[in-house]
Amino acid sequence: VLITGAAGQLGSALLQRAPADVEIRAYTRAELDIGDAHAVETAVQLTQPDCIINAAAYTAVDRAEDEPDAAYGINALGPAHLAQAARAVAGCRLLHISTDYVFDGRSQQPYQPQDPPNPLSSYGRSKLAGEQLVVKHLGTHALVLRTAWVYAARGRNFLLTMLRLMRERGAVRVVNDQHGTPTTADSIATALWRLARRPDLSGILHWTDNGRDTWYGFAQAIAEEALRAGLLPKPATVTPIATADYPTRAHRPANSALDCSASIAALELTPRPWKENLRTTLEEIAAGEGRTT
Ligand SMILES: NC(=O)c1ccc[n+]([C@@H]2O[C@H](COP(=O)([O-])OP(=O)(O)OC[C@H]3O[C@@H](n4cnc5c(N)ncnc54)[C@H](OP(=O)(O)O)[C@@H]3O)[C@@H](O)[C@H]2O)c1
Questions:
Q1: Is 216 an active-site residue?
Q2: Which of 2, 186, 235, 270 stands 20 to 30 A from 15 (CA)?
Q3: 3-state secondary structure of 290
Q4: Which residues of 267-290 are buried (b: 16+ CB within 10 A; e: fewer)?
Q5: Ligand 1 binding pocket includes 255 (Cβ within 6 Å)
Q6: Do 97 and 147 meet the contact criterion of CB atoms below 8 Å apart?
């Protein structure tokens, strides 16, 4: 299995959770730039993988508004290069990761994989183009797994930003009108390793942890669980605000909950409630800082 973006949140979780019987070739961005078609072709030809997992992406959602070409180069052309290279290796599959931000969030219901996408942002458009290109080039050898609100004990993510702000300021203001599901990189990695053994599955699937909340609900849970884990000296104040009170470069969907029932049934794997995974992640952070809970 060839893994790209190996130093990212998901890439790291894939390496940590790799089954013992799988031979892995993992490439960080410095080792393989997926925007470079020639480098991708060379790496894939050398490795002759059964499967490629593309954990590389341009994930700076707001910056993508100012750098649409950079986002497109990595999120659309990058996966297309991987798909084209995979075609030259008999039987090679591509597991590609996409995002809830391909949807406009106007539905009140969790989104099904086949619901029509309508991205609101440059990032979302680049990710949607990536989905379409891998399916176009690889057909049934491509599988797109959409996920949402990814975090881990390390990396750039909402959890670590909140923890830092709660420690520095003791108070945060967080939007309470965008709904979705916080999901650990570990949880996605577990689903991807199952998918790697299922060549019968292709097309688009969804995977998140279980449940649904707002960024405010996520932040409140972080405050509670971080206090419990000994990561905060005193309770932090979390104040709900509206998206209109926190303008960002990129527009984000008001609802981006994903319906995961198809992947749950196909993989016979049930996602854990997101708050349980948050607790586990904060305990991991506390252990890393030498604190006991
Ligand atoms: N993070 C989220 O909240 C979220 C939500 C929904 C879906 N997703 C999707 O989930 C997947 C994994 O995201 P993540 O959270 O693990 O992101 P991440 O932590 O930002 O990791 C992405 C990795 O890709 C690398 N990368 C960037 N450009 C590259 C290139 N041209 N060639 C090779 N590697 C490159 C990055 O390296 P540098 O750090 O050096 O740039 C980074 O190591 C992505 O497909 C993302 O779109 C993420």
A1: no
A2: 270
A3: coil
A4: beeebbebbebbbebbbbbbeeee
A5: no
A6: yes
| Six token digits for residue 281 | 């992640």
Q: Is 59 in the pocket of ligand 1 (CB under 6 A)?
A: yes
Distance 268 CA to ligand 1 centre (A): 27
Q: Alpha-carbon distance 288 to 284, whole Å? A: 6
**Catalytic-role residue among 27, 58, 123, 151:** 123
Amino acid at 163: L
In degrees and rounded to multiples of 5, residue 171 shows phi and psi of -150, 145
Nearest to 37 by CA among 139, 133, 146: 133
Per-residue pLDDT of the chain (293 residues; tens, 9 = 90+): 999 999 999 999 999 999 999 999 999 999 999 999 999 999 999 999 999 999 999 999 999 999 999 999 999 999 999 999 999 999 999 999 999 999 999 999 999 999 999 999 999 999 999 999 999 999 999 999 999 999 999 999 999 999 999 999 999 999 999 999 999 999 999 999 999 999 999 999 999 999 999 999 999 999 999 999 999 999 999 999 999 999 999 999 999 999 999 999 999 999 999 999 999 999 999 999 887 54
What's the CA angle centered on 214, arms 213 and 218, to 5 degrees?
80
Interval between CA 5 and ligand 1 midpoint (Å): 6
Question: What is this structure's pTM?
Answer: 0.97
Q: Return the residue whose CA atom lies nearest to atom 37 of ligand 1.
A: 29
Q: Is the CB of 149 under 6 A from ligand 1?
A: yes
